[in-house]
Design goal:
- This protein is of the alpha+beta class.
- The chain has one domain: Nucleotidyltransferase, domain 5, CATH 3.30.420.
- 50% of the residues lie in helices and 14% in strands.
- It is built from seven helices and four strands.
- Strands 1-2 form a two-stranded antiparallel ribbon. A two-stranded parallel ribbon has the order 3-4.
- A hairpin with a 2-residue loop joins strand 1 and strand 2.
- Helix 1 runs parallel beside helix 2, helix 3 crosses helix 5 and helix 4 crosses helix 5.
- It is globular.
- It starts with a strand and ends in a 6-residue tail after the last helix.
- It is found in: Cytoplasm.
- Its cofactor is Mg(2+).
- It catalyses: Endonucleolytic cleavage at a junction such as a reciprocal single-stranded crossover between two homologous DNA duplexes (Holliday junction).
- It comes from Dyadobacter jiangsuensis.
């Protein structure tokens, strides 16, 4: 599981920390979930982020894999919620499109664009971390987009979901 922590000052985005939580060495799913929670809690304590952006759950053919992914996302969300950190979710396609201009970009294309955006080389050892960095940058782009600001939505408001739909479309809800 990859993660990325960015800092934003004005329009300048800088990478603070990135890495991969290696879970293959843990024998049970419960231990893997515990490790995710502990590492994310430590990152939150170390960097005190204002917000957390994660990947939306996506559909797959293997129900067991989807269940495990959903649990991992829930644990990640719980780590943020325990510190009252707002969570925003973005689809993998939206993240890729935001970073590369194409929703069908490969992991290598995303990594290449991240290096251009951040003006630094990313370690190939942490290719899985590019997902976390890309989600953080996608959130920065969308949280401060003219459409987001014009609609009056708060930077801390969750993008997407029923709450956003209701607040953006009051005349369509009975």
């Amino acid at each position: 599981m990859g993660y990325g922590v960015i800092s934003v000052k004005g329009q300048q985005i800088s990478l603070v920390q990135y890495g991969v939580i290696h879970l293959s060495k843990y024998s049970t799913h419960e231990l893997k979930l515990k490790k995710i929670f502990e590492r994310l809690t430590q990152l939150i304590e170390d960097y005190l982020p204002d917000e957390m952006a994660i990947e939306d759950p996506f559909y797959g053919k293997n129900a067991q894999s989807m269940l495990k992914l959903g649990r991992a996302q829930g644990v990640a969300m719980a780590a943020a919620l325990a510190r009252n950190i707002p969570i925003v979710e973005y689809s993998p396609k939206k993240v890729k499109q935001s970073v590369t201009g194409s929703g069908n970009a490969s992991k290598e294309q995303v990594a290449y664009m991240l290096e251009k955006i951040l003006k630094m080389e990313l370690s190939r050892e942490f290719m899985d971390a590019t997902d976390g960095i890309a989600i953080a940058i996608c959130h920065q782009y969308h949280a401060n987009s003219p459409a987001s600001v014009a609609s009056g939505s708060s930077k801390k408001a969750k993008k997407g979901g029923w709450g956003a739909f209701v607040s953006e479309n009051p005349g369509r809800v009975k």
